[in-house]
Amino acid sequence: xxSHRRPKQPSRARVTVLTATAAAAVALTSQAAHADxxxxxxxxxxxxxKLYHEAEAATEKYNGAKEQQDKLKKxxxxxxxxxxxxxxxxxxLRGELGSIATAQYRSGGIDxxxxxxxxxxxxxxLDQASALDQLTVKQTESLQKxxxxxxxxxxxxxxxxxxxxxxxxxxxxxxENKKKYQGKLADAQRLLNSxxxxxxxxxxxxxxxxxxxxxxxxxxxELGNEAPASGRGAAALSAAATQLGKxxxxxxxxxxxxxxxxxxxxxxxxxxxxxxxxxxTQQNDGTKIGRSELRPGDLVFFNGLSHVGFYAGxxxxxxxPKPGTVVRYESMDYMGTFQFGVRI
Length: 344
Hints:
By secondary structure, the chain is an alpha+beta fold. The chain contains 8 helices and 6 strands, in the order ααααααααββββββ. The protein has helices at residues 12-34, 41-107, 112-118, 122-193, 197-220, 231-241, 260-270, 279-282; strands spanning 287-289, 299-302, 307-313, 316-319, 328-331, 338-343. A 6-stranded antiparallel β-sheet has the order 1-6-2-3-4-5. The radius of gyration is 39 Å and the shape is elongated.
């Protein structure tokens, strides 16, 4: 006779575990369904370009702090040299005063009235007394010189100390800006690394195509098509054109690599014109002009003054664009927000 046993009911604990597992599976499925999709290659590239622009802005601030540091260092060195020479002069004056005091002691040990009474030759004594008066006058002059030199030295020491304080502040700012632009570049690299090898290769090919187009453009852009801004502007643009293909490097100022303002400063130097180091200061090195007034050799500024290049004619600029690229020509239409031109 068959046994009819009642099926064993699952324990409450087992039911709880199964229920929790099922809920988790549903939640994960729901999250997967609503998760943000992986950014496309173009979206990553756009974000990378944005980070590069931010890194460039930090680079320009770094360059400005570096330039200020170099100037302050020269000023501090000059002041410290003055202080050292002034101390030597003070020591010499003190030595002279000591010699005068010794001579005065030797010749003035007896009361003048007594010496005159005892002198066998009063005229000779009077000559000695006159010399003693001259020593006193010279001693007074030496004391005055010493006091003046001490005041000057104190002022120079304070000025040197103040400059050293400024130098320390600038060095701190320098480090912060360097850390900032290095962080932006690292963020950009992490984004690029999130792409597949094929996507990264595609971006590299697009940049290479721009470089090839730039070299082709260099054969088309003729300064004769548009009158140059000036003889020196034309010379600076011509010098910059000799650097086509040189890599962009943050802080680079030639002749092997450049950032944007490093290229413009170097090129104008070849034309015999000294301009400042950063985009934020180069904007003040000449006369500001609008887009319709641009001529070859003018500087052109973009994206909140974080980028500068040369206007080359035919709506093209010659510049050092960003990390991973080289000095090249590029259409102004691809450059972002135009700020203004500057004619040096």
